[in-house]
Known about the structure:
This protein is an all-alpha fold and 357 residues long. Helix content is 61%, strand content 0%.
Amino acid sequence: MEPDQVKDLLGFLQQQTRPDLKSQVTQYLLGLTSSAEGRTMLAKEKAIIEALNTLIKDPSLSIVSDYFNILINLSADESVSDVFMTNIPVSLLLSNMLKPNYHFSEQICAILSNLTRDERVCKHVLDIINANDTGLTGILDLFFNEGLNKNGKLHYLGPLMSNLSQLQEVRRFLLDRDRDAIQRFLPYTQYEASSVRRGGVVGTLRNCCFDHEHHEWLLGEHVDILPFLLLPLAGPEELDEKDMEGLPIDLQYLPEDKQRENDPDIRRMLIDTIMLLAATSKGRQVLKEKNSYVILRELHKWEKDLQARTACENLLQVLIGDEPAASMQNLLKVQIPPHVEQHLLLQDEEQQQQRTD
Length: 357
């Protein structure tokens, strides 16, 4: 921006400026952040960012809303994420989000969800969460008490938790066997009110399943994760008694109107999560004993999405194939080439972006 333009904008972003004039400026800046070029331009103007931050306490709700929507647009652009590391009061955003009935918690959820896609920024956000009095417990309380905030559904807490769970520290918290946190997420694999929240939960479960040392516990009676992963993939097909043998009770005699998960990205994540559980010898044993093959076989017949169908085929091959050599019993310990790992991470980011667009 030209210095004169910056000066003019700063003049209108003062607390004493008439609301109608200030609103024109915030609307202009909001429009500016709709393009990558505009976001880059604004991110370079520290003085304007600092002036915008004062609007969080503006008496006009529409102006405060513009401020948060500007931050949503900026946070969606990873190329300007450093602005949030240095110039945006993320700690204040978090504190406000946790307040019951805060008017803009919905927007803050979206901002934090966007920010935490990048692992480096995610660690920064986690440090801020841990510095808050309630820590991760406060985030979980807000997630599970859906009526706590009357001004928003806060469904973007789902992707936020999924992003946070890419960090080992968060997975360790969720998988603490004395906390029973992971069990509270399980019913949300069939949460009908929002695919955003539902997808975030499935992403969280998937990330937790990367920690193979917990597989036996996750598949055991105390958590019993498998039915919650298979049920969204099950359809109304009538199964014979032989197929029914071994299936978890919740997957037997499903009604004729039973619907599968309608979001192909979430179906793929569910399949990926089961594939992770199948990476260990004990996991494969449980999947076979629970007759998971039958549900996946019917899913494969029905599946139209190419990527989900391919993922399903790969999982079926693991279940019906011979056990790998002793050195390959735990597939999560097999070294993955860096370029393959990077490709998978990029694919995951693309899918997450598609769900939030």
